[in-house]
């Protein structure tokens, strides 16, 4: 299993940046130990909500753009998704790093992760729309927003998400983007490989469906 804390003689090591509630749970299990937070959240984001809100905004924007592209787009759909993803990554990084100061110290990593997350979300939603029409877009909304955000764990941390949702946490774009962002911003890039591969798989699978559908029509 994953390490949630390390108990040393007289001292407990936790990492609240991995999940504030998870760190509090570990602390509660060892109330007498002196606690050292090896990866603390910034004072202005003590609950770790910045990454959560960033991913929510990215997901909603990606699904909305994909829906408009499905309903009104005619040509260069994949190029449009790519340009949208790059623009989203840069705008979000400028907002959360430079303007707001919520996720700082990893501007280009943040931009790249959000861009890949937006590409994965947009491509997946557009692919479902191309395959199934309006019902596919409805399915994309359900899969990527309430299910995806619920499975991501939010500020709780993915390890505290129970059962079926916990199994999906790292497999959907929202959870993968959130994990990659936290790894890049708070852990120097550690733990980002698998989430990035998940996002790339979603983006490539969505693009493949769009290409195949275009060839058939």
Distance between the termini: 48 Å
SSE order: EEHEHHHHHHH
| Sequence of strands across the biggest β-sheet | 1-2-3
Strand content: 5-15%
Helix proportion range: 55-70%
Q: How many helices? A: 8
The stretches of 5 or more residues where confidence is low (pLDDT under 50) are none
Secondary structure category: mainly alpha
Indicate the mean pLDDT: 88
Q: Could you tell me the radius of gyration in angstroms?
A: 18 Å
Shape label: elongated
Q: Main sheet, how many strands, which sense, barrel? A: 3 strands, mixed
Number of strands: 3
Overview of the molecule:
The protein is mainly α and 217 residues long. 67% of the residues lie in helices and 5% in strands. It has eight helices and three strands, in the order ββαβααααααα. It has helices at residues 20-29, 49-72, 77-99, 107-132, 134-152, 163-168, 173-186, 193-216; strands at residues 6-8, 11-14, 34-37. A three-stranded mixed sheet has the order 1-2-3, with helices on one face. Strand 1 (6-8) and strand 2 (11-14) form a beta hairpin. It is elongated, with a radius of gyration of 18 Å. The mean pLDDT is 88.
């Amino acid at each position: 299993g994953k390490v949630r804390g390390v108990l040393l003689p007289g001292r407990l090591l936790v990492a609240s940046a991995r999940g504030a509630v998870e760190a509090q749970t570990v602390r509660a299990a060892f109330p007498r130990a002196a606690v050292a937070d090896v990866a603390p959240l910034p004072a202005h984001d003590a609950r770790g909500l910045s990454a959560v809100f960033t991913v929510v905004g990215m997901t909603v924007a990606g699904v909305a753009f994909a829906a408009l592209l499905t309903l009104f787009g005619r040509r260069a759909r994949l190029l449009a998704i790519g340009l949208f993803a790059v623009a989203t990554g840069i705008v979000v990084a400028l907002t959360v790093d430079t303007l707001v100061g919520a996720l700082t110290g990893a501007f280009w990593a943040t931009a790249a992760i959000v861009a890949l997350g937006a590409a994965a979300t947009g491509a997946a939603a557009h692919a479902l729309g191309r395959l199934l029409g309006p019902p596919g877009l409805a399915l994309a909304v359900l899969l990527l927003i309430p299910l995806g955000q619920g499975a991501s764990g939010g500020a709780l941390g993915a390890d505290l998400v129970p059962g079926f949702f916990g199994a999906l946490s790292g497999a959907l774009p929202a959870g993968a983007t959130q994990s990659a962002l936290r790894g890049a911003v708070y852990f120097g890039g550690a733990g980002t490989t698998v989430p990035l591969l998940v996002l790339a798989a979603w983006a490539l699978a969505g693009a493949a469906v769009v290409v195949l559908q275009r060839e058939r029509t």
